[in-house]
Amino acid sequence: MVTSVESQATELHQPITQSIQPPPLPPLEPPEPPSTTAAAAYESRLELEKVLSDIQLPFFKRMRLASWIELKILFRLAGPAVMVYLINNAMSMSTRIFSGHLGNLELAAASLGNSGIQLFAYGLMLGMGSAVETLCGQAYGAHRYEMLGVYLQRSTVVLTLTGLPLTVIYILSKQILILIGESTALSSAAAMFVYGLIPQIFAYAINFPIQKFLQSQSIVAPSMYISAATLVVHLLLSWVVVYKIDLGLIGASLVLSLSWWIMVVAQFVYIVVSDKCKATWTGFRMEAFSGLWEFLKLSSGSAVMLCLETWYMQILVLIAGLLDDPELALNALAVCMAINGLLFMVSVGFNAAASVRVGNELGAGNPKSAAFAVVVVNVVSFCVAVVEAIVVMALRHVISYVFTSGETVADAVADLCPFLAVTLILNGIQPVLSGVAVGCGWQAFVAYVNVGCYYFVGIPLGCLLGFKFDFGVKVHLSSHHFFLSNYYF
Questions:
Q1: Could you give the C-alpha distances from 394 to 207, 271, 337, in angstroms and in order?
Q2: Contact 312/346 with Cβ under 8 angstroms?
Q3: In whole angstroms, what is the distance from residue 312 CA to residue 432 CA?
Q4: Distance between alpha carbon 27 and the CA centroid of its chain, in Å?
Q5: By its UniProt entry, which Pfam families does this protein fall under (predicted)?
Q6: Whole-Å CA distances, 6 to 9, 12, 205, 396
Q7: Separation of alpha carbons 213 and 359, rounded Å
Q8: How many CA atoms lie within 13 A of 459 on its CB side?
Q9: Contact 149, 285 (CB under 8 A)
Q10: pLDDT (tens digit, 9 = 90+) per residue, 58-86?
């Protein structure tokens, strides 16, 4: 019995320990990659490690060849991942738009339900799914293909159990919103919207592990195509349900839940029938129910990390409401946060790519490739963020008119744009470094760093500069990202 428990613990942690211990000697003939896509990625990784280890090549030539190989691998991963996150963000945004056309109360209710309740669940479930990112990435790099399916199922079990208390929170959302000071009418409408999102919780529980399972194998295009097709279906169903059938807020949120389940079913069918996943998906296994506590501990660090970031943005809104002329401060901040939130999806895509790259290379025992991948993904993400910042600065006097026609708000947004630009640049670094840490299995470390930088540095410093030195809402946008990025480096 003791031997069985010990073997389960070894099986759970073996891929992670390969990131901090010398890897075992590889077999003379490594297992054949499970698909042509995987074979191409495997060959690219071998070529990259060979180039980086070839000290006979001149340094600059070695860096040039290695950079070209790594860039091809990176964009094959990051491009579709960015599109998936942008499309998922667009589905939620479109639901708020449809709700907004029902009336001001409905728009406020959908926004409150989304930012106050749904965003908490999204961050928690996405963070809880990070163990799959670490374990699958390293197991795949170590050619332990059969374990990927076990980790997928184990994560689904853990996330489904996590969804049960979240369901209780959703059911009690009206009482919670009234307790924190929202009006009864707004709380009732927001609760109606949230009730329709309860099925979405359990779609999260399956979708996030599936995404990480596929990403760890460099299979990212199918999720992008499925998400794009689902967005089209979502827009059509939302129009029918909200305007033709007249189901209102509950209809809009139920369609959003249904759309997420469509993505889940389509991706799972792809895993089952695709030849690319035959080696990694071997059917349902009882091993999925073992080692759940260790799996939960690994997941909880990243869950805390994402929840802290989510809560920080909500605290930011509350603090802005205490400033002089709070209506103007909140409106300007809302526009900047909407822009930042959309562009942040690009960084999240690079975050996923960084985690996969580092996990794969550490699992394969290629520390040089892992370190080089960290450098390349950070440089690329930083350059993309600089371009975003330049575009925002160039459009700072007109960009707010997408959201509002008020000239006063437009002027306030233009005044905030330099700070927004700094935030965008820092967002190009910090999430990617978080992804690297997750790829190494350092979720708890990331959580500690976030607690310190967000709550012991960012909020106190922002309040000091915002209230004492009259910087207003400006400093809140960028201070915490500055300290996070510096600490990760």
A1: 38, 44, 18
A2: no
A3: 19
A4: 35
A5: MatE
A6: 5, 10, 28, 59
A7: 12
A8: 17
A9: yes
A10: 888 888 888 888 888 888 888 888 888 88
